Amino acid sequence: MVTSYSLSARMSRIVCTALIALGLEGSAAIAAADDNPPRPGHTLVVLGDSYSANGLRLDGNSMQCDHGATAWPIQLSKLIHVDATPDFVDVSCSGASLQSSTAYTLAHEARLADQAGGFGPATKLVTLQFGMNDTWGSSDVMLWNVILTCVFNLQEGCDTDALDQNRIPDYRALTPEAYADRIRQVITFVKYYAPQAKIVLVGYPELNAPNSDAFCANVLGVGAIVQGRGRALAEYLDRLDDAQRKAAGLLGIDFYDNRAATTGHGLCSPEPWVNGFFDPRADFLGLPFHPDTRGDEATATGLQHWITG
User: Fold this and answer.
1) Rounded to the nearest 10 degrees, what angle do helices 72-79 and 293-308 cross at?
2) Which of 58, 70, 223, 290 has the CA that lies 20 to 30 A from 272?
3) SS3 labels along 212-267
4) Beta bridge partners of 46
5) Residue 226, strand partner residues
6) Which helix or strand (DSSP H or E) is residue 173 part of?
7) Average pLDDT over residues 37-49
8) Cβ–Cβ contacts within 10 Å for residue 165, how many?
9) Residues 295, 288: contact at Cβ < 8 Å?
10) Of the candidate ranges 60-74, 91-105, 150-164, 202-216, the one whose mean pLDDT is the lowest
11) CA-to-CA distance for 202 and 240, rounded, in angstroms?
């Protein structure tokens, strides 16, 4: 006999999350499930891609996910004293997308978090960090699959003509409305089952300065590779930041401006908080284009006030 959570309630949640995974609108999915009391929930729930997990995952189709020891969710869990406890649920995974053809998607992660009892009245903070691994419009290109080519292809570059050549995701389709549509179902689900939680859409750290025509990456801490025709790459990052910010407003959730928190600490800055290629000024063996320990610390510290006030 189940005392804390009835069998019918468990089935209700399973049905609801399954319907969301199949694409049914969140409100309709909730209505399709029985109206049973939710589980207590856990303090911190993290959904996201490699910028949350910050762990190596070579096979994008693998279901195995590693988390870096200094990733911002782990640092945040320590700041609020829930590390290594059931009150910390981190299902972020490198390569995850909002809804593109990847092993992990937002809906899949939400289902995993719910199966772990993540969402309930006691849940205080739910974070989402997605957008680097998605396709947009008619293009089948994901940014993470082409970012290295964009930077190192000095002959063709990665200027706006890369868009028509399908060498960069179609950022013209990356609008606040389109982004909001991809997360609306999960947001509705979380709001229903974790009504007291702050839901925060976490932006990405500064890689290069916004509105740039060039894109820079550092190698070994002694030299920079400058892609002088990098406007398309910069445009995607700018539009992703704008789409996240405005989508949060459309859905009535919060946005954490990670770019602002890491301004002046991009890849080729004097003090980078983002990893280059074997750059000793950041994490020497860290994932390129991902935050180092200090960058993750800035994110964790910035998010802490949503729980502690």
Assistant:
1) 40
2) 58
3) CCCEEEEECCCEEEEECCCHHHHHHHHHHHHHHHHHHHHHCCEEECHHHHCCCCCC
4) 90, 127
5) 216
6) none
7) 89
8) 9
9) no
10) 60-74
11) 11
Length of the chain counted residue by residue: 309
Please give the C-alpha separations between residue 97 and each of 48, 142, 150, 231, in angstroms, as whole numbers.
8, 10, 20, 23
pLDDT of residue 36: 53
Distance, CA of 24 to CA of 30 (rounded, Å): 10
Question: What's the CA gap between 189 and 209, in Å, rounded?
Answer: 35
Owner of token pair 């989402």: 128
According to DSSP, residue 105 is labeled: B
Strand partners, 94: none
- What token pair was written down for 278? 């074997």
Strand order in the sheet with 125-129: 88-90, 44-48, 125-129, 198-202, 254-256
Q: What is the pTM of this model?
A: 0.88
Tokens describing residue 84: 């290594």
Tokens of 303: 């998010």
Specify the range with the lowest mean pLDDT, choosing from 25-34, 50-59, 240-249, 281-290. Answer: 25-34
Tokens of 120: 């309930």
